[in-house]
Design brief:
The chain is α/β, with parallel strands linked by helices. It has 2 domains: about 5-95 and about 240-275, Rossmann fold (3-Layer(aba) Sandwich); about 100-240, Rossmann fold (3-Layer(aba) Sandwich). The chain has helices at about 15-25, 45-55, 75-80, 100-110, 125-135, 150-165, 175, 225-230, 240-255, 260-275; strands at about 5-10, 30-40, 55-60, 75, 85-90, 95, 120, 140-145, 170, 185, 210-215, 235. The strands form 2 sheets. It has a 6-stranded mixed sheet with strand order 2-1-3-5-6-4, sandwiched between helices. It starts with a strand and ends with a helix.
Length: about 280
């Protein structure tokens, strides 16, 4: 009998998680299958119960449920610190957050120095929580910019209490750009398919010269924000590697098998090139 895993979120039209997971299962000859379950926020609890009833043993959690899902699961130390979950093992209802390791490992894979780096985080949702948590643990100095300053301040206050983070501050974008910036990370959904013309960066505002931009958005593979950075002479990296690496961590958790990361990355590249 096929073992089933999948993802819940809303609306999920952009997700390529099935592509990489099913490619990995096929490469390893595993009788597993990954699919998508669009679940609106008002039936989130049901969206966790029904997959269990239908034999699913694991779930990924994405926008907008990463924070709300916590009240229904058993969080590990990372989830309790970050305040967001993205991977659930339905066999014991436990949850973790693989976004942290996915981001940090991908930044390191691109030879981006983190210790002592000045990092600007755009956004204050679940992905931003994971980024701030992971980056401060690596020794980076983090500034958070969000459309609502109060939300960014609350996020950092919660992280200070839950994880004891240091070297993280909430500022306006103007204030943030008064100091040197080495790395800018987009943790918002701006530019996510199908809204590919959107950018989290204000049109006409100069991007710091020589800065590296990391956009967690992976579809499209080159976002409007990435093009803005490259036009300013900066380096731009999309979120495909983070997607693959956080997926690989979830794969290992569910299956207890080391995933073929290169197979997952190749499947994602092909899907992004063909538009599937």
């Amino acid at each position: 009998m096929t073992t089933k895993v999948g993802a819940i979120g809303w609306p999920l039209t952009y997700s390529l998680s099935p592509v990489m997971h099913n490619a990995a299962f096929q490469a390893l000859g595993m009788d597993w299958h990954y699919d998508l379950m669009p679940i609106p926020s008002d039936i989130l609890r049901l969206g966790l119960i029904e997959p269990q009833r239908h034999g699913y043993i694991g779930l990924n959690v994405t926008i907008p449920h990463k924070e709300a899902v916590i009240r229904f699961i058993k969080p590990d130390e990372i989830v309790r610190a970050v305040g967001a979950a993205n991977t659930i093992d339905l066999r014991d209802n436990s949850a973790t957050n693989t976004d942290v390791i996915g981001l940090i490992d991908d930044l390191k894979a691109h030879d981006i120095p983190l210790s002592g780096a000045n990092v600007l985080i755009l956004g204050a949702g679940g992905a931003a929580r994971a980024a701030v948590f992971g980056l401060t643990r690596e020794g980076a100095s983090v500034t958070v910019v969000n459309r609502t300053m109060e939300r960014a301040q609350l996020m950092l206050a919660n992280l200070t209490i839950s994880a004891g983070i240091k070297n993280a501050h909430a500022k306006t974008l103007d204030e943030a750009l008064e100091s040197p910036v080495d790395l800018i990370i987009n943790c918002t959904s701006a530019g996510l398919y199908p809204h590919i013309d959107e950018s989290p960066w204000i049109e006409g505002l100069p991007i710091p010269c020589g800065v590296t931009v990391y956009d967690m958005v992976y579809r499209p593979s080159v976002t409007a924000f990435m093009r803005q950075a490259e036009s300013a002479g900066g380096r731009a990296i999309g979120g495909m590697g983070m997607l693959a690496r956080q997926g690989a961590a979830a794969f290992k958790l569910w299956t207890d098998v080391d995933p073929p990361l290169e197979v997952m990355l190749a499947a994602l590249r092909e899907a992004l090139q063909t538009g599937n």
